[in-house]
Design goal:
By secondary structure, the protein is α/β, with parallel strands linked by helices. It is 42% helix and 34% strand. The radius of gyration is 12 Å and the shape is globular. It starts with a strand and ends with a strand.
Length: 103
Amino acid sequence: MTSMHIDREQSGSDVLLKVVGRLDTPNAKPFEASLMEVVTQTTGGIVINLAGVDYVSSSGLRALLVAGKAMRTGKRKLALTSLQPQIREVFDISGFSSLFEIT
């Protein structure tokens, strides 16, 4: 199993999460749990820096989708930043690029 690490930083009312590792099936559930914890604990937006992520599976996409839906329900912003080219391609092919603000 490959490991994944999430650093959390507060920036005003927003939270910046820096994810390093693989968003694959073994890591998707813990990632989703950590992400949903941030969703419930913060009142501002969430920015997820994916520069350190080199692989995203459908399970990883689902975890992002669940968090994105929760944020939209609360009328808050969830943005993704610094996607590596192969990760951006996964988002483009799957149609997820239109579901998230990607910078």
